[in-house]
Amino acid sequence: MKRILFGFAASICVGSIMHIPAANGALITIVNHSFEDPSLTDGVDVVDWNGWNFTLGTGGTWNINGNAFWNVPAPDGNNVGYLTNSLEPGIPAEATQSLDVNLLANSSYKLLFIVGHPIGFGATVGTEFTADLRAGGNILASVSGTGLEGSFQQVQLLFDSTGSSFIGQELSVNFYSSQPQTAFDSVQLSVTTVPEPSSALLFAFGLAAAMRFRRKRSLPQ
């Protein structure tokens, strides 16, 4: 499947504290976006992502605090969601969530999430994780990487819907892991309306006219 690298920005966790920049624009609801449901005691994991569906492989929710597999605590809360690849070689684990909102025209979307791998489970060759934003099952934008081992980084994915043929179709977020284990946290999706060219042009003309009128009034009579 062809994947398009739209935008990638990583913020590496240093020490034990990670600052999580907030998404800009209007936030779209993502159920259990930081995997704090269910509430778990330190070190405990369960095979479930409440609010998400596993379509390939499996995964779970893991409270990583006080855990030897990580050099840092969970970036957002106590838990992370992890994926474990399928038993069949070459088939990644996949988790998805349909967002119950449709793709808007002339809008800019920003998907932010945090990703990392337990110590001993980092990638040695090839892609470790992939994330994509879809509308009606069609990939709008996708980003892949290897990620950090024992720590986390933030990843950004951008999409501008101007001219898209999938306007009005339901949005979904998908995560994949091609290696034994990949952890995700703090998933945020925001949308900002992009002014139509005609509106922006009209505003520019109006601003220019106002400036000319002001200059004319300020000239000596």
Automatic annotation (TrEMBL):
Entry keywords, A to Z: Signal
Residues in Ice-binding protein C-terminal domain copies: 193-215
InterPro entries xrefs: HpiC1, Ice-binding_C
Residues spanning the signal sequence: 1-25
Domain of life: Bacteria
UniProt key word Signal: yes
Protein name in the entry: Ice-binding protein C-terminal domain-containing protein
